[in-house]
Amino acid sequence: MAGPSPSAEPSKPATPAPAPRIAVEPPSFDFGKALPQKALTREFNILNFGDQDLVIENVATSCGCTAVLLDPARKVVKAGGRTPLRVTLTTSATPGRMSKTVLVRSNDPERPSLEIKLQATVVAESR
Known about the structure:
There is one protein chain. With 127 residues, the chain is mainly β. It has a single domain (22-122), classed as Sandwich (Immunoglobulin-like), CATH 2.60.40. The protein has no helices and nine strands. It has a five-stranded mixed beta sheet with strand order 2-9-8-4-6, with no helix packed on it. Strands 1-3-7-5 form a four-stranded antiparallel beta sheet, with no helix packed on it. The model has no long low-confidence stretch (mean pLDDT 90).
């Protein structure tokens, strides 16, 4: 019976290929309590902790109540670099908990989609 023969060379751990690696600071944000129909803004940092350029291909929001601002000139993040992403969440007209997401698509082969979670609790205005 001929089976696979063991290799004469000891196996070496594979060296990861050079690639971009995406992360975001902070990974999520809770705005806390807010009044109805208020625009709440937070700046996030998109980080590239890889060793190749990170290309931000698309940024999408889960609803029309969330807007993002990313400078088109900063869609390429050098290795070890960062770029700001400004997110504005407009609270709903009715009291209650809100949970929304921002999806960042990039050329990171291990994590092509990165989700940023946003939350807020809308409270009624006191009269």
